[in-house]
Specification:
By secondary structure, this protein is mainly α. It is built from 5 helices and 2 strands; from the N terminus they run βαααβαα.
Amino acid sequence: MNFSYKVSVEVPMSLLEVEFLQKMAAIHYDSHCKSVGAPGGFLYGMRNSAAFSEEDGEPAKHFLLFRQIGTLLKTLEPTAAESFDGGRTLRVALRDRLFPCLQAINDELTRLEVK
């Protein structure tokens, strides 16, 4: 019998942050980055979750896979979106929060001795 494991990390994100990621995705040159913010994409689902969570006064807690975090980081590459109000500051803050999540997943995979 074979088993499969997917390691994800919890990343709290406000509605403002998720909507910013959607804006960045919408103007990104890469079609995969664009697709994650569109209906059916994981950012679209995160936006819905964040909207309902903020009604309770808490940021939504999302469990993200390595690949999803990598896509978000690619979406956060500097672009013309820097002209959004607070765009550069928010982009840098999100990038600085997401990079350690990649390392956390790698550390967990090492701990589990997943090859």
